[in-house]
Design brief:
By secondary structure, the chain is of the alpha+beta class. 46% of the residues lie in helices and 15% in strands.
Length: 242
């Protein structure tokens, strides 16, 4: 009888202990689950600002590039200036004859030479202005320097001198504070008068400017001007000879 009672007590004790262990495990899991559910929103709140900070990196549309001001401007100038040149060539000798007597001449091509400074150096406007004027260029209302048929500024424009970099123009009232890494000279074909003579003048002016500033004359591809390139220009000019 005593033995049976002892085994009964052992079984009951085992059941009680087992129940306590199961209850303890269940309580621990419940608390862990509650903490996890409370923690998730906090973690999300902490992570959300991190995701919001990623767009702080500048977007392409918002970025500004100072280098844009140093990009060559001559292509746009040539494109916009062709209609003006056409108007000028339409009135052949407009200062000497009536407009209705002039012949219509449409620009079909152009010649361009660049005068490029060595890297890190620039042409000072205070020195560039007198040099350009000594070569017979006249400042225009558009902000360019024009070389007319006559050095006095009379007659049609043969070719132009522009800033090689944006905005492409010159502010003659502030040339003392101005500087540029290069200039460009271009003429449209056909031009008024002798095409070949006009090209020779353009070529000569570009060489004199290069010598004055220690610069390099470049062709339309911005490569150093070679004898072969000059011959190619001459052949092109001759195609438009009257």
């Amino acid at each position: 009888m005593a033995t049976e009672l002892r085994w009964a007590l052992i079984v009951i004790s085992a059941l009680v202990i087992g129940g306590l262990l199961i209850h303890g495990l269940w309580s621990v899991r419940k608390k862990s689950s509650d903490k996890a559910s409370k923690k998730e929103p906090n973690e999300l709140k902490e992570q959300t600002p991190n995701h919001d900070k990623e767009p702080d990196e500048p977007e392409i549309g918002e970025m500004t590039f100072s280098a844009v001001d140093d990009e060559p401007a001559t292509e746009g100038i040539i494109a916009t200036e062709e209609p003006e040149t056409e108007a000028q060539t339409e009135s052949c000798g407009s200062e000497e004859a009536e407009p209705e007597e002039s012949a219509l001449v449409e620009p079909q091509d152009f010649i361009i030479l660049h005068v490029d400074m060595p890297e890190g150096l620039k042409m000072a406007g205070s020195r560039l202005l007198p040099t350009v004027l000594s070569l017979g260029f006249k400042y225009s209302d558009e902000g360019f320097f024009n070389r007319h048929l006559e050095p006095s500024g009379n007659g049609p424009v043969l070719f132009r001198l522009v800033n090689m970099y944006n905005p492409g123009t010159f502010d003659i009232d502030n040339m003392e504070q101005f500087s540029t890494a290069g200039i460009s000279l271009f003429m449209t074909l056909p031009c008024e008068g002798d095409n070949l003579a006009a090209f020779n003048m353009l070529h000569s002016a570009s060489k004199k400017l290069a010598e004055e500033f220690g610069a390099t004359v470049l062709d339309k591809d911005r490569e150093p001007l070679t004898v072969e390139a000059v011959r190619g220009y001459v052949e092109k000019v001759r195609e438009f000879a009257a």
